[in-house]
Amino acid sequence: MATHGARGRSGGRPTLEEVAARAGVGRGTVSRVINGSPRVSDATRAAVEAAVAELGYVPNTAARALAANRTDAIALVVPEPETRFFAEPYFSDMLKGVGSALSDTEMQLLLIFAGSDRERARLAQYLAAHRVDGVLLVSVHADDPLPDLLAQLEIPAVISGPRSSAETLPSVDSDNYGGARQAVEHLLSRGRSRVAHITGRLDVYGAQRRVDGYREAMSDAGLGVDEGLIEAGDFTEEGGHRAMAVLLERHPDIDAVFAASDVTAAGARRALRDAGRRIPEDVALVGYDDSAIARHMEPPLTSVRQPIEEMGRRMIDLLLTEVADRRPLASRGLERRQMVLATELVSRSSS
Amino acid sequence: MATHGARGRSGGRPTLEEVAARAGVGRGTVSRVINGSPRVSDATRAAVEAAVAELGYVPNTAARALAANRTDAIALVVPEPETRFFAEPYFSDMLKGVGSALSDTEMQLLLIFAGSDRERARLAQYLAAHRVDGVLLVSVHADDPLPDLLAQLEIPAVISGPRSSAETLPSVDSDNYGGARQAVEHLLSRGRSRVAHITGRLDVYGAQRRVDGYREAMSDAGLGVDEGLIEAGDFTEEGGHRAMAVLLERHPDIDAVFAASDVTAAGARRALRDAGRRIPEDVALVGYDDSAIARHMEPPLTSVRQPIEEMGRRMIDLLLTEVADRRPLASRGLERRQMVLATELVSRSSS
DNA sequence: AGGTAGTGTGGGAGCGCTCCCACCAGTGAT
DNA sequence: ATCACTGGTGGGAGCGCTCCCACACTACCT
């Protein structure tokens, strides 16, 4: 059969052609059965399936990719060093959700780190070669060139956490605004009124939305918005510590703090302790993320939980749709697909 | 050019043929340049490279895979649930090493979890489709059927931690025997003589080698081997706690313990505290792995460090060799490639 | 009777590479 | 002058699929 000698290949996997011969049908028909086309009679389908089973036929993905111009693979791109990936539960939860959504698909998931310049160059090369049908982008900064590259290469992509209110890419996010409101309203319902807010990095859209939520919750409660109660952090512990110190100096009568992340809250807690404030007696504290830190803090931290696993699943849904009906770019963007998931307040003893 | 209509494909990536035309050479010559064949004159090579640059040519991997019957991808298979993968630093270190060794290669790394039965079935399907050129197997239990499946499919594989002294697959491991000796000799040099050993899971070959190392170090020191000083653990904290309690009951005069892992040592430490023993005054303690646990224990734990990142790099080296000179199975196995890396004792205040 | 739609089905053409054979200089030995 | 070679090169054939056109065959109208 191999007319030009034994080139590689020892066992010799069966091909479509062989299955077709075995089943007594044509090549096209076998292809139709394999790909689940409805235009095949039941009898023929059964015959083909039997032949597939007998021969142990497994489609050759390379041939399929070449002929159909698709790869059946998508990439989860993490624009961070691996270290952060392993350190933050955000990523492993995301991965879990993505994996579960993909498990009843033929799609293969590739995990790609693009933290260093070198890794980014490799990724660009990889994408240029169109080795994936779509890309999942997590944790993207406002000025990242990756989304543009993807658009230029016409590779479908979904982003977790839009870069702005005018995000053009389909996105899945948790309700940062609503989550912030939950946090503040919870503190108010506990009888607090001098509620401060330590923000996240303000070049991250989600952090801004949390500020918005804080502002409107305060305002709706008739307390007005005292800009002096807002201090910028950067999602780090050190930033939280610094901001808290500033706030205490400015407003010694603060009786509650909403921090934009659990790590930030940990920093704030340290500053509060330094200043001799008791939690929650003197100052109630609420974080964001409901990470392991929240559970293990002393006292355990009330925090706003994001459904990260669910977000991963939704991102896959969006991406697969995008890949499936890959249409001319012109018609995209009109029907923006931005998905927002609800958050949940997990109440513990810090508030 | 596309004679049968615009099938997908909007931009139209340039092909080998187009590059050849541009450079005024034949298809074969361009292929030779792309693949770095030496049989091309310098002038021709330059012309082709210029054409490649001008056109922004990127090889089509699917076509290459089909024609050459290779995928340029290898899989790192983790036969554990994702949770363990993220929890144990072993895996992230391994991944780091593997990634760095691969970074100056064309090879793509796939991370595949095979913890559940479902995932394993998917993996089997994946391997049957020959979607990777080779497989890296980490953390394989003695009775895992995966190695046999790989052998049957004739897919090159490298294993981390041989399953027995008769391992047929190429493997990379740290020197468990030597590491155990280092630990025991260290304790003896500190003036201890009643040294106990809490083992790992004994169906893991590496754990057995550690016992061997312990035995021979004791015996070489002229202390003889008291089997009563050896108690089986299972790499878990609970197992370590239980074993330590048993040992203390049996030999209240123990003055040192070598635990087969840091986690085990943490369990042992708890049992020692329960029994009112001070570390290291009454009992010196040494662990294995030099994980984060060791650094954060109270007191900091002396531990045997394995060069995990280096192991990852070596595994890649072995695998790439294996993939490159993929020869008839018959000649394999004769020249077994088992690699063993040295360990290092990291001394801290627990001993 | 002759249309007019469907359903199934076979198989040609083509996806963009790699492999390998043929061939064409040159160069030196015979 | 003839016969090896040897470094370079062109291009046919083929990898195993998917796509789509063509061609049955049925129905069910006019």
Automatic annotation (TrEMBL), chains A, B:
Transmembrane segments: none annotated. InterPro entries: HTH_LacI, Lambda_DNA-bd_dom_sf, Peripla_BP/Lac1_sug-bd_dom, Peripla_BP_I. SMART domains: HTH_LACI. Signal peptide: none annotated. One of its GO terms (molecular function) is transcription cis-regulatory region binding. Residues 14-68 form the HTH lacI-type domain. CDD domains: HTH_LacI, PBP1_LacI_sugar_binding-like. It comes from the Bacteria. Keywords: DNA-binding, Transcription, Transcription regulation. Coiled coil: none annotated. This is LacI family transcriptional regulator. It comes from Streptomyces sp. SID7499. The lineage of its organism: Bacteria, Bacillati, Actinomycetota, Actinomycetes, Kitasatosporales.
